[in-house]
Task: structure prediction
Amino acid sequence: MGMLPICLVFLSLFGLCGSENAASNAEENQFGQVNWPAKQDKYLIGECLSNQYTHKSCRKVFCDPWERCVEGKCLCKLPYQCPKNGSSVCSANRMHFSTYCQLKSYECQQPKEKFLHKGKCMPEETFSISPSHGNLSLLRVKPVNQKDDSFVCANGWTTNEANVACKHLGFELGAEFQASSTTAESALNPLDCLQITCRGLETSLAECHIEMKSRDSNEGLVSLQCYKNLRECSDGEFQCVNKKCISLNKTCDGINDCGDLSDELCCRECRNNSFHCWSNICIPNKNVCNKEIDCLTGEDEAGCEKRIKGDENDSVDEERKMVKTLLPKVHCGVTNHTFTRRKRIVGGYNAKKGEFPWQVAIRDISKEGTVYCGGAYIGGCWVLTAAHCVRANRVHLYRVWIGLLNTILYDKETNTLEVKQLIIHENYNASTYENDIALLELRGSGSRECFLENVVPACIPWSEYMFNTGDRCKVSGWGLEKGYVKQYILKWGNVNLFNNCSELYPGRFFKKMACAGTYDGSTDSCKGDSGGPLICYDKQNVAHVWGIVSWGENCGEAGHPGVYTKVASYYDWISHHVTRSVISRYNI
Result:
């Protein structure tokens, strides 16, 4: 009888949900529309590129400490919203700020107020750069702590540094992609030169690490050519989001050639051995194991037993890293329990105490039986579930069990709470199950509010790129066994994320839905599992609610994987109702 909202099945193969070849062809068509050669499909993902992602797109990257993520964009914080701790700094206009974060927050709104140096402002301090010396266009830099300007060492100079230098000079598009170094004439043969290292997203060369070093005998000096005029990109070139043109072979190499990072954010794979994040971003190898997470799911810092020794100088980059450690973090998705392979039972595994501390059971006390829907505790007084599980006029009848394992045996660690308010998504469609998501605000007992012992909230994913097709996740619940036999112990099973399932469910599978299943069809979920969480773990072993059990067809039928509400698509909706501080693990 069509779609059954409380009947889920995880029996399918990846091929049933649309082949990767079909996806490739679609991307090639999109490349054709914007005159990008189809041969570059090996690296670039057309569907992703159409979203125009940049270093300010927090669905792809982390915002800086002086920014916050709002509807997918990194926006300026106000200075008072920065942490109070940190080193005092001076701006280019000699304004004093208590911390580097406060200055950057102010600069975010007043771009001319750039960083000058750490410490208090003194009169007549200057930092200057000049891109010319005769006909050589050699770059000269005068740091604050140096009397005269100096040439810049060519060794270690990359597009990252060139872009920052040009932006410092007022060229917002950064450097020409072919900017290079040149060997000085014999008349210009300095014994020393400045070694400059930048991340690539600084707004002033003064923010980069600069030190004087002895020049190698054959080492060239940096010349600088800034990108001055926009033009139409030719064949063999990539058009950045900022309209700058770079060579196609400069994309997906971990280097920010565009200056806005748009050449590194939609990459199926990476060139030049740069590091490929799950979220299809390429980062430089030097960013791996540097004690700072760059990939959304933390794989660049996973398994770093012997971490690469970072830059231990007193640089502004280290100050930025320090500020990030001071930002408030929500502790979610982490348990002390480790999963071990146990004796297999039909339909999955019996859960042990503490394995799924975010799992909740929802009961309507006016009806017989125990659990009729599941949900996920996400922090504070809030539970996430499916909209089809609840009705506004029955709020007073709902009870939520948190910490429950066995629905028959009493457990003193189980919390039972009433529901204070119910928020069903305003665009929920009961016919198509679009926007099948709801929030339950729990009512605390007495003055305790919702203080829950031995309970850990699951994290809310803020980006739709955190997990991808093929990733293994876990679904859990008290749903019926095969043959519609009741079960009383929480069970869980492994399922794999599938590609877009619109071919399997034509006209019924929508953009904000996800589907998942198993290869051998051995893990099923059925009546009673609706509203429960589909949990995916990042490389730091942090649990995220990737999906909410929504609907499927014919429990146990091959070729019809379970369909979920994709939680990442509703991050802003959730944060609007529960407040961002409850769910923002990285202060986004």
User: Anything to note?
Assistant: The radius of gyration is 27 Å. The longest strand covers residues 415-424. Confidence is low (pLDDT under 50) at residues 1-40, 339-346. Helices lie at 20-33, 46-49, 100-109, 159-168, 316-326, 571-578, 580-583.
